Each structure stands twice: as structure tokens, then as C-alpha cells.
């Protein structure tokens, strides 16, 4: 069997239906984004499906470039093909999330082909399932959203600090769901907090018994994360913005996090995800893959990984996503009791619905800046779009 072609499908995923319930700068995260799917075709009539993230519009070009490495090759030799693609990318510099995003979708599709040929789900080829159901956590901004997730059986939720720090919100959510549900806080920018502000916030968060405090500082400087790590008694999580085992290695080897969060669409592939999980396991670190902006194919791939690693914690899931999410693939995953059941079909267990994807052509792939409302940035500075900004002038927002 030989690879005969690689086809990409770039589409616009619309805003989530609860956009108006989002607060301030949070609304931008909850808006429109691109999804990039691909199919690898073979001369045996078997087609594998994958998904890439890490700036999908740019990743599409990378995949198309790498198709010249793949065509004519045996798709069963997954590790060798991954290594050849990785070598091809290195001439352009460090891999980054664009390169690892391309590798992720390609390798995902190769595993899908292998599973279909052998008549087995991918998790079976990875050593068999440790667990049959993968627990998930959802996103909540309001008490009503939190109670809704609780009613669906979720045992954990996450709320964002996107620019603004809202400790009052965390307090309200804790009161709404009681001690039974785990709560996580995602502090990613814009703008990023300084280490001293992140420490102040982290100490205030200690009172809420958090599951984890995610991305408290900018990801470029891990020494800043180390400062926070040494100063707060809250579990830390990070890793969604880096690709491959090499990108996650310093987080793990320096014991900077309690939870590592590789993104299934840009971590480098299923094998890279399992290598990251294995390294994390040796350090007592749990795996909770990022999925906040991903489409449905990568979610299937994450289930296969989470089923086969001992240190799986939770899978991030956007429960109330844009309605088109449930049209562009078949079958559609459904949460039951706060968990997703393992796919039982050969391969990844998911197929693209091409006609539905064609109804949503890609328009844009970069986020708009937040409004100048004093939440994401100090009033009058939003147009500066600084990467890191102190919260000291807004200190009252740092305490409930």
C-alpha cells in the first residue's frame, strides 16, 4: 500500500452560541476560529483523517509542502515518515507550533489508516485501553453555566482570566457548585500578568481548592513560571503553546507544573503525546490535553491517547460549542456522566462530512484585539497590545 495524495480542508468555525454571556475580553477567546482537517489517500482505497492546529491557515501550507515527502511511501511506517517530515522541516529553523501542527495531523491520519487496515481502534494498537471512559472538564463563566455542567455529570470546570482577573467569579462558582466539583482557573493573556501579580493572584486562589492554575505567566520565559511555582501552594498547569516532546521537556524536567497540557492538534502527533505523557509520568505530573480551540477530529485522537496512558487526568471539552461542530464529522461525540466513551470503530473512529465543511469557507484566522475597557489592559493602552502588563494599578481587582 502506498500514499497517493494528501488533501487539506480549511474551514471557518463560528462563534459559540453563548457569546453574549462571556465577559469582557473573554468574548474574543469564545469567538470564531479556523479548523484544518486533512485526509491521506492510499492506492488501497483506505483514507486516513487528521486535524492540525497552531495557526491553521499557515499550517495548511506546511502540510501541502510535506505531502511531497509522503506521496509514494508506505503509510504503515509511521515513525519513519514522521522522522522524514521532521527532518524536512528542520531546514527552516526550529519546528514551532506550525511545523508540529502539520506533523500532528499527518501522523494522526497515518494511525487512522493503520487502524482501518488492521480492523482495530487506534487505542488498541497503542497497547489497549486502561480506561473505557475519559472524564472531561467544561468551561463556565457564570453560576448558571456551572450548574448546567454539573447537571450533565461533569466533575470539573474551568473559568478564564483573559486579561481581567476576576476572583469574585471564582468565589461565586465555588459557592454555586459546592465542594464536589473541581475548579480550575486559566490565566492566559492578553495581557499576561507579571510574576509578582501572578503570585499575588495565586495566593488568593489558594482559598478555593483549585484543581489547577493554568498559564499564570507568559510562556516564553520559564524562569517566570519557576518564580510562581516556588511562591504559591496551588497546582500549576501549562504546555498548550509548545510542540513536540522537546517543547514540553523543560516544563516536566524542571517540575514546573503539576499538569502538562499538550494540544492534540499541535503537539506533534499521537506518538509525541504518549512520549510527553511518559516523561510526565516519571515526574508525577498528570496529562490534561488542551482542546479549547480544536475541532472534533483532534478530540477523537485525544481520547485514544487518554485511554492508554496511566497519568491521564481530564480532557478539556467545549460542551456548548458552535453548532457547526456537530455537522462536519460523523459520528458526533456525546458526553455522558461527565465523560466520553472510547470510539470502538477501526482507526480513530471519525470521518469528515465534506459537504458540511464546504459550507464554511475560511475567512480569517487571527483574533481581534480586546476593547479599551480597562479589563484586558490599563485604560488607554489597549492599542499598544503589550505582551505583559502589571495589574498593580488595578489591584482592587486582584482581591475578592
TrEMBL record:
Alphabetically ordered keywords of this record: Isomerase, Lyase
SUPFAM superfamilies per UniProt: Enolase C-terminal domain-like, Enolase N-terminal domain-like
InterPro entries in the record: DgoD-like, Enolase-like_C_sf, Enolase-like_N, Enolase_C-like, Mandel_Rmase/mucon_lact_enz_CS, Mandelate_racemase_C, Mandelate_racemase_N_dom
Domain Mandelate racemase/muconate lactonizing enzyme C-terminal positions: 139-235
CDD domains: MR_like
GO process annotations (BP): amino acid catabolic process
GO molecular function, one term: isomerase activity
One Pfam family of this chain: MR_MLE_N
Region named Disordered: 371-400
Record's compositionally biased regions (Basic residues): 389-400
Name this protein carries in UniProt: Isomerase
Source organism: Pseudoponticoccus marisrubri
